[in-house]
């Protein structure tokens, strides 16, 4: 394989993505090491702490069960801010549109985007639009940036997990990735829709309940729960122990993954979060999350241990122990 070529796997969120980021993109542009990377940058404006993030969306198809590329762009950006404990406030939107794209479908996407922004309590305040020749893009790509404000003094960071802490997942795994894949391939799966949703309202209640007990917040998008937990284990220098029988997976996702040989641990989510929390705060926080519409299926899925740094392992349903690695290659391209 030619090491000079960019592959689809470099956009998977997994091992190849991390190598590209750490060895070239981040190393060239900012110099931040892997331990310093989070879902958004924290900035100071006088006495005010701000979070700033940016993201690109290339999902195929651009309209799918449960959303569109427009609502997905809003949700993904506000969720990155929320994972820093920031209240999302403002977004930018840049559109790259292929010549020949339908104005009526563009209207559907933009209306969905506006409704998502209104629902999330954010304003789209600036943007840009470019049109490229037919065949030079695939219908529509969207890039969004977001700014939020931290209304507390908490330090929520991927390097903060400590031995004894508890891992909570806010709901079922893989709904978004499998819904998009099924729509792309024309597979009818009754009751399966993307979980794309804005998470700030849930996070706000979590901060109110657990406060300083919250160590880490992450939304497990590309690469799924497994890849996100590998990132956290590496940043914090700890071992994470998972319990397979505690992992929430819908029957639809489990069925499709079983047929196609996919592992739900590695499938993208767009409306779920992982929180690592101090042990004394875990049960009260779980109960509070389960009272929220976006956390009704929340479950404790594991613990943090003082083992080999960067290691994630899982006790399987039959009692064995499985090593969980970061996603290798590209399991489902263009999911977000």
UniProtKB/TrEMBL annotation:
Where is each PurM-like N-terminal domain found?
Answer: 38-149
Q: Which residues form a coiled coil?
A: none
Top-rank taxon: Bacteria
InterPro entries, per database record: HypE, PurM-like_C_dom, PurM-like_C_sf, PurM-like_N, PurM-like_N_sf
Domain PurM-like C-terminal, which positions? 162-313
Q: Which GO terms describe its biological process?
A: protein maturation
* Family membership: Belongs to the HypE family.
- What is the protein name given in its UniProt record? Hydrogenase maturation protein, carbamoyl dehydratase HypE
| Lineage start | Bacteria, Pseudomonadati, Thermodesulfobacteriota, Desulfuromonadia, Geobacterales
């Amino acid at each position: 394989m030619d090491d000079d070529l960019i592959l689809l796997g470099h956009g998977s969120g997994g091992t190849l993505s991390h190598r590209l980021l750490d060895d070239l993109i981040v190393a060239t542009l900012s110099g931040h090491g892997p331990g310093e990377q989070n879902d958004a940058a924290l900035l100071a404006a006088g006495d005010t702490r701000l979070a700033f993030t940016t993201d690109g969306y290339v999902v195929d198809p651009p309209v799918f069960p449960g959303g569109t590329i427009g609502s997905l762009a809003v949700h993904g950006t506000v969720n990155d801010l929320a994972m820093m404990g920031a209240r999302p406030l403002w977004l930018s939107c840049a559109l790259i549109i292929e010549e020949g794209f339908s104005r009526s479908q563009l209207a559907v996407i933009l209306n969905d985007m506006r409704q998502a922004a209104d629902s999330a309590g954010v304003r789209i305040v600036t943007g840009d639009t470019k049109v490229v020749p037919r065949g030079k893009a695939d219908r529509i790509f969207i890039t969004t940036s977001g700014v939020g404000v931290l209304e507390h003094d908490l330090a929520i960071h991927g390097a903060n997990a400590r031995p004894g802490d508890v891992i909570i997942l806010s709901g079922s795994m893989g709904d978004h990735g499998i819904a998009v894949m099924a729509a792309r391939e024309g597979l009818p799966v009754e009751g399966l829709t993307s979980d794309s949703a804005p998470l700030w309202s849930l996070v706000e209640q979590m901060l109110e309940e657990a406060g300083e007990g919250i160590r880490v917040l992450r939304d497990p998008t590309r690469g799924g729960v497994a890849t996100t937990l590998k990132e956290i284990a590496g940043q914090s220098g700890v071992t994470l122990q998972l319990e397979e029988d505690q992992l929430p997976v819908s029957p639809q996702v489990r069925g499709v993954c079983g047929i196609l040989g996919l592992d739900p641990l590695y499938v993208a989510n767009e409306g779920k979060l992982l929180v690592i929390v101090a042990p004394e705060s875990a049960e009260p926080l779980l109960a509070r999350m389960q009272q929220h519409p976006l956390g009704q299926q929340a479950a404790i899925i594991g613990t943090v241990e003082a083992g080999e740094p960067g290691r994630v392992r899982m006790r399987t349903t039959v009692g064995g122990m499985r090593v969980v690695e970061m996603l290798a290659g590209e399991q489902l391209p263009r999911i977000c």
